# Entry
Amino acid sequence: MVMSKIKERFEKYDLLERAKQYLFKQFFLAPPMQASGVLIHQLLLRKVKSQNPVELQFFIGG
# Structure
């Protein structure tokens, strides 16, 4: 939803092709993605403490 609004803004100002030439091109080329609240909840239930504070780790099936 957010990405579609950003794409619309870039298209409005005719900047979409230019944006695709830079580091963020994967965000414009990726298909829309839907998140599952149930899946995220189940993952968070299996979260384990990580040594690295900038990453999340999950314990899933051993």
